[in-house]
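Re-run with default settings, no changes from the original entry. Doing this only to confirm the output is reproducible before filing.
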Amino acid sequence: MTTEIYTNRPAAGIALVIIGIIAISINDMLVKWLSADYPLHEIIAIRSFIGLALILAFLRFDGGLTSLRTRTPVIHILRGLCIVMANLSFYAAVAVMPLAQVTALFFVAPLFITLLSVFLLKEAVSAASIVAVCVGFLGVMVMQRPWGSGETDTPTLVFFLPIMAAFLYALTQTLTRKLGLTTRASAMAVYTQSIFLIICASMFLVAGDGRFAANTTNESLLFIVKPWIVPPTEDLLILALLGVLSAVTVFTLTQSYRLAKAAIIAPFEYIGMPLAILLGWLVFGEWPTIEVWIGCALIIGAGLYVLAHQKAKPRPRPKVST
């Protein structure tokens, strides 16, 4: 017997995505805090190990180990690789750019999700919503400040890292919606954390001794190839917290895209913008420029417009096939 796990519960999906975005915002701040001393793959490896342990413990109450069986292993691997590459791209930018600016650039992701939901999931999105998506992209361009690119020492390529992370994240969540018809959120979280660990272990074998760091001057690349170090007790506590936040983030965001349409869930990810601005100011003393404020207003406004103009449709009943 095969059970098709399909639900249309937008309120629950929205609540979960809000919890997930709060968790990931704190996570991003802590990764930036640790980036001066630790390589990215060490941070993610420890975070994923703790997160995987917590998710496996929770799995006992959510279908057990049998829920890990899948008929679509290739899609799970593709989804896991997308989210790993999205993380690497995003955090490589976080290491050298203000947190609010990176987050703002990354928030092209919900716009990508809305578009991908049309082409890959065949979900209906109104013409007005497409116009709102275009306005959101305009907001991203304003925050990018292309007319002032020569005024910064940050390499141009770094500015594109959050955009690449955004597209990969959008593809991840679109695949989540597709897999969510037959796979539990906790099972997808296990696959994701496992792929994180495999990739980080591979990076440790290749670059964990710091062999590539000596001749590296690019700060984003240096964050990836630094040598591993043994964390002191106070940093272990931060890394443990990252593991908890990772488990919460992976489960809640995965579950949210199983419970509701991608085009409905995506706009609520915009709450990460004010959170990033607040945390960047409180922790790192980073205050956004006027362009960032204008861009945030355009993107948040576009997201709210998309949400308000989604056409109401009858909720399909859960299906069980034998």
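Residues 1-6, 311-322 have pLDDT under 50 and may be disordered. Residues 233-259 form the longest helix (27 residues).
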